[in-house]
Write a structure and sequence with these properties.
With 468 residues, the protein is α/β, with parallel strands linked by helices. 37% of the residues lie in helices and 21% in strands. It contains 16 helices and 20 strands. The strands form 5 sheets. It has a 9-stranded mixed sheet with strand order 10-11-9-8-7-6-5-2-14, with helices on both faces. Strands 1-19-20-18 form a 4-stranded antiparallel sheet. Helix 12 runs antiparallel to helix 13. The radius of gyration is 22 Å and the shape is globular.
Length: 468
């Protein structure tokens, strides 16, 4: 054994024991501190000041949230609602343009935009003129980089050739196609009926229009899924030839998303079956040349995301894993979250309240949090574990100006995970073994001081989904 290295015990517990010990809810770590710790202490005035303090020659990325869908999928955990007519969508698009103008008043200059992402909901609920107006407003405020990534999430069931042409005209160059599962019984249980053929038709149309960087979203842990049905879905999805595939575990949180109560809980796979499904998908994708990226993403070897994962420069934000290096993320729309050097901000989540604030000429901020130096250190440690499955604690402490003993308690807390094969330690270097990749969030949680404190204060409060 290498000096200073702590390795997993060869008598690693079985899967059921591991899940019983470590299956407790933990954050997804798309930020640190995580959203449950945001508070109204960070308000519109705080956000205005933070925007003014940005460097005028800095780079930003932008997220646009569109909280409308043609119908509600029962598994959905997003901030969205069904739009029965064009009226609310048009009104929302108009307010988005207004909000872009409000933010522009507080920016120090025309900053460079490197990434733009439209999410939802179903962003393609926007009409052609809505896209044109929003993109024009953004181009007036920001200087788009020549190689800017302009991405959008798409529901193939509500997509047509005309909309594809609009996206191409407006400069979109990446699209993420929602699939989740192709099995008819699963689709019936989650309220989403979608064939491989209609999904393939949208993928073909996007590529024909020059939007040839395609992502695919799949899910495991859905009602009625088993390993055989998951295998069929993945093998069918491979025909779409996506550059990146995200494989998310369904988060059943009916106490937060009331419509999920309509999902038959008796049909949900148990923890061991969920883990088996995740590992099955990973194996199939690896066999077809996809590289594992972080916790739940896969990318072709030549894709920038796979390259970032290989060289240790992968990032993670509220959209998940990303190649986005911008130090500033500005969110527009109801519930959208922004990340600035000073901290995080979140817009009002309820669309009527967001409308009212923007119409009144106010930045529609509901809450946020200022980050401390220790938060920045812990964020770095957690992000590297989420992205690289490894972090050098001494190097991190040195980089952020903290003494090397800062994580003494965390190193001690890691010992049970090390004994159970979920982590390894070589001196100050902490790693998640490849076989324990699905448990990465559990290892990250050891370094989440705010989670530890909140559990001690309110041990029964439900804030997150299951760890695996």
């Amino acid at each position: 054994m290498v000096a200073g290295m702590t390795c997993p015990d060869i008598t690693r517990p079985d899967t059921n024991t591991l899940l019983a010990r470590y299956g407790q809810p933990v954050p997804r770590y798309t930020s640190y501190p995580t959203a449950p710790h945001f508070s109204p202490e960070v308000d519109a005035a705080t956000y205005a000041r933070w925007l003014k303090e940005l460097r005028p020659d800095g780079t930003v990325s932008v997220y646009i949230h569109v909280p409308f869908c043609a119908e509600l999928c029962l598994y959905c955990g997003c901030q969205t609602a069904v739009a029965r007519s064009r009226t609310p969508v048009k009104a929302y698009a108009d307010r988005l343009v207004d909000e872009i103008g409000l933010v522009a008043r507080h920016l120090p200059g025309r900053m460079k935009l490197s990434h733009l992402h439209f999410g939802g909901g179903t962003p393609t609920m926007l009409a052609d003129e809505d896209f044109a107006a929003i993109m024009l407003a953004l181009r007036d405020v920001f200087a788009f980089a020549d190689d800017a990534e302009i991405a959008i999430e798409i529901d193939p069931r509500v997509m047509d050739a005309d909309k594809v042409a609009v996206l191409a005209r407006e400069g979109f160059n990446r699209a993420s196609l929602g699939v989740q599962d192709f099995d008819p019984q699963v689709q019936e249980a989650i309220g989403r009926h979608q064939s491989l053929e209609e999904t393939q038709a949208v993928a073909d149309a996007l590529r024909a229009a020059g939007i040839d960087a395609l992502n695919l979203d799949l899910m495991y842990g859905l009602p009625h899924q088993d390993q055989a049905s998951v295998r069929r879905t993945v093998e069918a999805a491979l025909a779409l030839d996506a550059d990146r595939i995200a494989v998310f575990g369904y988060a059943h949180v009916p106490w937060m998303k009331k419509h999920q109560a309509l999902i038959p809980e008796h049909a949900l796979p148990g923890p061991a079956e969920r883990l088996a499904q995740a590992e099955l998908v990973a194996g199939i994708l690896a066999g077809h040349g996809y590289r594992a990226v972080g916790l739940d993403h896969f990318a072709k070897a030549g894709d920038p995301m796979a390259q970032r994962a290989a060289d240790g420069s992968l990032k993670r934000n509220f959209q998940g894993y990303t190649t986005d290096d911008a130090p500033v993320l500005i969110g527009f729309g109801a519930s959208a979250i922004g990340a600035l050097p000073q901290g995080y901000v979140q817009n009002l989540a309820a669309t009527p309240q967001w409308h009212k604030a923007v119409e009144a000429g106010a930045l529609p901020i509901a809450r946020g949090i200022a980050v401390s130096d220790e938060d920045r250190l812990r964020r770095h440690v957690i992000e590297r574990l989420m992205c690289d499955l490894a972090v050098d604690l001494d190097a991190a402490c040195q980089s952020f100006g903290f003494p090397p003993e800062t994580f003494a308690d965390e190193i001690e807390a890691l010992e049970p995970l090390i004994a159970d094969g979920l982590a390894m330690r070589r001196g100050a270097v902490v790693e998640v073994p490849e076989a324990a990749r699905p448990f990465t969030r559990v290892v990250c949680a050891v370094f989440d001081a705010r989670l530890v404190a909140s559990r001690a204060a309110a041990p029964e409060k439900k804030r997150h989904a299951a760890a695996v």
